[in-house]
Amino acid sequence: MKTSDVNFYGAEWICPHKLGDAPVNTYVEFRRSVRLPEFDGSEGARLKIAADTVYAVWVNGSPAGAGVFPDVPPERQFDDLDVARFLRRGTNSLRIVLYI
Q: Whose CA is closest to 35, among 87, 98, 82?
């Protein structure tokens, strides 16, 4: 699906500081904790992700998805991952690793 066809509710691109200076064949890791005080899984949970390269996602330490994006802007593609089974009530961890 093209990102231009989807409303991402204020989502922003993230990238490491001075990524242009990073050597090739490097891993870049992003981590975030998210607190879900009322989560029971009944409503599901989706993670939409687009990357300029190979990526892998872990939720609470479990592999939740991986992909490759050979396309170029502005017609970005994205993966829509169902991550509800990895989430729990309380604090959850999200880890995304890119290979550049």
A: 87
